[in-house]
Design brief:
alpha/beta, Rossmann fold, 2 domains, 10 helices, elongated
């Protein structure tokens, strides 16, 4: 059974964007047998029913909602907690009750920036290695009714996590901005309005390269320095540390100048994002 089939099979009302289905199918394929799923936002309970149909009777399905009426779903075999996912105290409570036992945490709650950000910042303590955190309806980061666009939106927060994946490379000149999260989030899976974060999926060394073959006769030199002209020949006579510093400065100036055109080429149009959407430095 696929995710969208499980949604269609639910007897309780639920609504999901159809294109979420293939993304969840990818995630589910990585889960262990009889996984633990924690979903923020229960509504009528249709999504919880879908997880039961998809993952089987031995899966542990946990729901969190602000609505006390959701506790009626306990009679159907679901664990229900009446909590506010926008409050740190709620996450403290979930950690006490569940511990680090969740294989898939889905945030489909109120979609506010605070709720979605805390689903990552605090939810990661509940997710065991190899598990996932999924944020649904991330387009709320661009909706006025949620106080967005904002430099402190959930979408910008996720962008920072993506950047940290690259900042964390051993050859990067900078370090991750959110080192604690960067240490556990190892991959992202993204489509429109849906973000999946893989948590501690594998232990890898980003310095570990795979090199093969014997013939390196076609290897050329570093062409990034080509358009420096005479400056390159002059710099070659300088001591190595000075030469390296000069090259970095020259390349930074060149890249700042030449990359601005392609970077800005597709900007604009009705409803386009504006500079105030950019996250603060």
């Amino acid at each position: 059974m696929r995710y969208n089939d499980a949604i269609r099979a639910s007897t309780r009302v639920t609504t999901k964007y159809r294109h979420y289905g293939p993304m969840y199918d990818t995630v589910v394929a990585t889960l262990p047998a009889s996984p633990t799923v924690l979903e923020i936002g229960v509504a009528n309970g249709g999504s919880l029913q879908a997880w039961r149909a998809l993952l089987g009777p031995d899966a542990r399905i946990i729901g969190v909602d602000l609505n006390p009426s959701a506790t009626a779903l306990r009679d159907e075999g679901f664990e229900i907690h009446v909590l506010d996912s926008g409050a740190d105290a709620s996450w403290d409570r979930l950690l006490d009750v569940i511990g680090r036992a969740v294989d898939l945490l889905v945030d489909d709650g109120g979609h506010t920036n605070v709720q979605q950000i805390l689903a990552v910042r605090r939810g990661i303590d509940l997710v065991r290695d190899g598990g996932w955190i999924v944020l649904e309806d991330v387009h709320a980061s661009f909706m006025h009714e949620f106080g967005n666009p904002s430099p402190f939106s959930a979408a910008h927060f996720v962008d920072e996590l993506n950047h940290d994946l690259h900042r964390g490379h051993p050859r990067s000149s900078v370090t991750p901005r959110r080192p604690a999260l960067a240490a556990r989030i190892t991959a992202t899976l993204v489509t429109t309005s849906w973000v999946g974060l893989r948590v501690g999926a594998w232990a890898y060394d980003a310095r570990d390269e795979l090199t093969a073959g014997q013939d390196a006769s076609l290897m050329d030199y570093d062409h990034r320095w080509d358009d420096a002209g005479g400056l390159r020949r002059w710099a070659d006579r300088l001591p190595p540390p000075v030469r390296a510093s000069l090259k970095r400065s020259a390349l930074w100036i060149r890249e700042s100048r030449t990359a601005s055109g392609p970077y800005r080429a597709d900007l604009g149009g009705p409803g386009a994002a504006t500079p105030q959407d950019a996250p603060p430095d």
